[in-house]
Amino acid sequence: MNKTAEIGEVIDRVQDGMTIMIGGFLGVGSPLNCLEKLAQKDVKDLTVIAIVNSYPGGSFDLAALFERRRVRKFITAHAGTCPEAVRAFKSGELEIEYYPMGTLIEKIRAGGAGLGAVVTPIGVGTLVEQGKEKLTIGGKEYLVELPLRADMAFIKGYRADTTGNVQYRGISINSNPVIASAAEYTVAEVNEIVAPGEIDPERVGTPGIFVNSVVQGYSLPQQQEIYRRMWTKSGYLRETIA
C-alpha cells in the first residue's frame, strides 16, 4: 500500500475539538511543515499533547498554534518555553494539564499498547495525586495513571518508505516513536521518501503498521538551515564570517 500523501490532504482531516499528538522536543525532531500548515487552518478547540512546548522564546514549531488560538487544552510536562502559550494561559484562553515527563511518556505508551493504566509512585503526597486512584503494592503507594490517545498524531522522521516504515536521525528519536503508536491516524513527516526495501530493517524506528500517511517535509539541507538560523539568532550558535 502506498501511504504517501500531500500535506494539505492530511491537514484537511483535522477538525474542531480533535486531540492531536505532536512529536519533538523543544522544536527538535518536530514536524515543522505540518505544524505550519496546521496553524494556517481555521480550526479551533484542539487538545494538543506534546512532551514539552516550543523552542525557548517561542515563534517556532508549536508557538503558532497558541498565537492563532487553535488550542483549547495543552497536555504536557513543560509549557514555560513558549511566550505565546503563557499569554494564552494567563488570559484564561488555554487550559494546561501537567504531568512529570516520565509519567506522560508512559501514559502515551500505555495508550499505544492498549493498556488500561500505568502505576507510578511519582506524585504521591503532592498536588499531582488529587482526583486520582491510588494502589498499595508491596507496602508502597502508587498513583493510577490512565492512558493517553489521540485522534491524530504528527511525527517527524528522517526517511520513510512508501509503506510507512520510518527511519530516525539523531535525537528526532526522542518522543516520535512512542507517539506514533498512540493515535487513530498517524502522519509521518520526513525529509526523504524512498521505495520499499531502501531502509535497512534494523534502521526502522517506527514500523509502517503504525503510520497512516507519509508526507514530504523539508529536505535535510533545508531543515539544517532552518535550525542554523534559529540557533544563531538565539545566540546558541556563533555564525562565522569567512
Automatic annotation (TrEMBL):
<keyword id="KW-0808">Transferase</keyword>
<protein>
    <submittedName>
        <fullName>Acetate CoA/acetoacetate CoA-transferase alpha subunit</fullName>
    </submittedName>
</protein>
<comment type="similarity">
    <text>Belongs to the 3-oxoacid CoA-transferase subunit A family.</text>
</comment>
<dbReference type="InterPro" id="IPR004163">
    <property type="entry name" value="CoA_transf_BS"/>
</dbReference>
<dbReference type="InterPro" id="IPR012792">
    <property type="entry name" value="3-oxoacid_CoA-transf_A"/>
</dbReference>
<dbReference type="InterPro" id="IPR004165">
    <property type="entry name" value="CoA_trans_fam_I"/>
</dbReference>
<dbReference type="InterPro" id="IPR037171">
    <property type="entry name" value="NagB/RpiA_transferase-like"/>
</dbReference>
<dbReference type="GO" id="GO:0008410">
    <property type="term" value="F:CoA-transferase activity"/>
</dbReference>
<dbReference type="Pfam" id="PF01144">
    <property type="entry name" value="CoA_trans"/>
</dbReference>
